[in-house]
Amino acid sequence: MSWKIPLFKIYWDEDDVESVSEVIKRGNYWTTGPEVEQLEKKIAGYVGAKYALSFNSGTSALHADLLAHDMKGGEVIVPSFTFISTANAVVLSGAKPIFAEVEDNSYGLDPEDVKEKITSKTRAIIPVHYGGAPCKEIKALQEIADDHNLFLVEDAAESLGSKIGNKMVGTFGQSAIFSFCQNKIVTAGEGGIVVTDSKLVYEKLKLIRSHGRLENKENYFSTTSELDYIQIGYNYRMSSVTAALVLSQFEKINKIIKMRREKAGYYDSKLSKIKNIKIPSSLKNHFHVYQMYTIQLKNKINRVKLQQNLIKAGVMTKIYFSPIHLTTFYREKFNYKKGDLPKTEELSEKVLTLPLYPTLIIEEMDYIIGKIKNCCE
Predict the structure, then answer these.
(1) ∠ CA 97-299-272 to the nearest 5 degrees?
(2) What span, in angstroms and rounded, lies between the C-alpha atoms of 261 and 356?
(3) Average pLDDT of the chain, as a whole number
(4) Is there a contact between 234 and 208 (Cβ–Cβ < 8 Å)?
């Protein structure tokens, strides 16, 4: 469908085009080029982590990260209210996802339910920073993980740049991942990165990312030496073209976040006056980067009615997220069923994500707001 107002648009400029063109015109090292290491250093420095390693997607980054932490045979506590890759990465790492409820403010994991789900097999907790918002209870989850000697692995795919006070999302656990998929804060269409303070995890990630190959100063494409393969691994590398584009986008991150926050503020000022709409929570000392702008309706009937009216008006919306535990694979593989997570199931029937992107203009936002008023007041 050709939307009058799409859910998202990518913010780009001629610097992005030039950055990619330079790599292409170089005629070599379209992978393992200098841009990859440059990006890793930039992101590590920005977040405040000792190490960063790039991957070809956020999903492969999370998968590799869990493999590096050796989750095989264990259980990992995750929200069901997230994109399915959070749980899929757990399964692919050889562990069982244990779904826990989320709280109703930032849509992050509920620590009280997490504590109930911990068993002798639990190896890790994966909190998700939803839609650009820091997980409200990340510090409580950090304490729970420490108390039970568990890994805390942050899925911050949607939230590069968000923070609590001066502490950046991605630095609360042993490691974290960010995504550069096309609807994220900065993007190259696809891509991901892991940040960590652990040299051991970092060295394991390098092996997992590139076929289990042992490399020192020179990479496979730069050396005439025979390199050894010391374990099984994947081809999860990020290309130099991708890295160059993310680097160029990253130079604009403060501008992009500022634009997003301005659009969200305008939505807030108008939608907060509509009785039957709950706008995203703004928590004290929490810096929200608004990768998504998600509202809540009173119930599923109201949500369906609004979404259908917006579709007719040419406005794209999306449900982020439907419960993972009720998808066919997780019901059949792990015997999850309706009623297992009543809070998550209720929340998923009320949420609706509205268009939000840096170049969204006031006239477009007023058009959307007007359609919402007509439907909900």
Answers:
(1) 105
(2) 10
(3) 96
(4) yes
Contact between 109 and 141 (Cβ < 8 Å): yes
Rounded-to-integer distance, Cα 97 and Cα 91, Å: 7
pLDDT in tens, 111-120: 999 999 999 9
258-291 tens-digit pLDDT: 999 999 999 999 999 998 999 999 899 999 999 9
204-235 tens-digit pLDDT? 999 999 999 998 777 777 777 788 899 999 99
**CA 293/CA 352 separation, integer angstroms:** 8
CA-based end-to-end distance of the chain: 28
DSSP symbols for 33-75? -HHHHHHHHHHHHHHT-SEEEEESSHHHHHHHHHHHTT-TTSE
The residue type at 133: A
* CATH of the domain spanning 14-250, picked from 3.40.720.10, 1.10.3720.10, 3.30.1220.10, 3.40.640.10: 3.40.640.10
Q: Where are the alpha helices (DSSP H) in the chain?
A: 14-26, 34-47, 58-68, 85-92, 111-117, 138-147, 199-209, 240-250, 253-271, 300-312, 328-334, 342-348, 362-376
Q: Which fold has domain 253-376?
A: Aspartate Aminotransferase, domain 1 (3.90.1150)
* pLDDT classification of 34: cutoffs 50, 70, 90: very high
Cα 145-147-149 angle, rounded to 5 deg? 60
Residues 6+ apart with CB under 8 A from 161: 132, 168, 169, 185, 253, 257, 287, 289
Which residues, listed in sequence order, are joined to residue 353 by a DSSP beta bridge?
A: 294, 318
- For residues 142 and 134, the answer to whether their CB atoms sit within 8 Å is no
What is the residue extent of each domain of the chain? 14-250, 253-376
Tokens (6 digits) for 15 = 């610097």
Q: How far apart are CA 86 and CA 81, in angstroms?
A: 10
Q: How much is the pTM?
A: 0.97
